[in-house]
Amino acid sequence: MIADASDTIFAALADPTRRRVLRLVAERGPASATTLVRELPVSRQAIVKHLVVLRRAGLVVGQRQGQEVRYGLRPEPLGEAAEWLAEIGASWDARLARLRAYLLETDNEHR
């Protein structure tokens, strides 16, 4: 994953309200800002701003239906972020395994 793209995704996911918006869209399907505001303790304008950030990160896509825009989930960036986190986790697991082996070896030498 490209650093700029991952920065944008993680910055978008850093806000708990945006995570809640994303969760609602993922669970219930495409929704308008008006629909989402009924579920959250923020104004419609705040929801629109959060949706703009999520759209710029590629996490949602807007589709105009009449006078409103309905936003749907784009899961691909989440998969890319999860892969990146898994790679980092695997790297740390390998480091910790080497450290554990070293400590066990050192401990056995001192016995």
CATH topology: Arc Repressor Mutant, subunit A
CATH architectural group: Orthogonal Bundle
Please indicate the percent range of residues in DSSP E strands (runs of 2 or more): 5-15%
CATH H level, superfamily name:
Winged helix-like DNA-binding domain superfamily/Winged helix DNA-binding domain
Distance between the termini: 47 Å
Shape: elongated
Computed Rg = 21 Å
**Which CATH first-tier class would you pick?**
Mainly Alpha
How many domains?
A: 1
Number of helices: 5
Major sheet details? 3 strands, antiparallel
Q: Spans with pLDDT under 50 lasting ≥5 residues?
A: none
- Total strands: 3
Summarize the structure in words.
With 111 residues, the protein is α+β, with helices and mostly antiparallel strands. The chain has one domain (3-109): Winged helix-like DNA-binding domain superfamily/Winged helix DNA-binding domain (Arc Repressor Mutant, subunit A), CATH 1.10.10.10. Helix content is 68%, strand content 13%. It is built from five helices and three strands, in the order ααβααββα. It has helices at 3-13, 16-28, 33-37, 44-56, 76-109, and strands at 31-32, 60-65, 68-73. Strands 1-3-2 form a three-stranded antiparallel β-sheet. β2 (60-65) and β3 form a beta hairpin. α1 (3-13) runs antiparallel to α4 (44-56) and α2 (16-28) crosses α4 (44-56). It is elongated, with a radius of gyration of 21 Å. The termini are far apart.
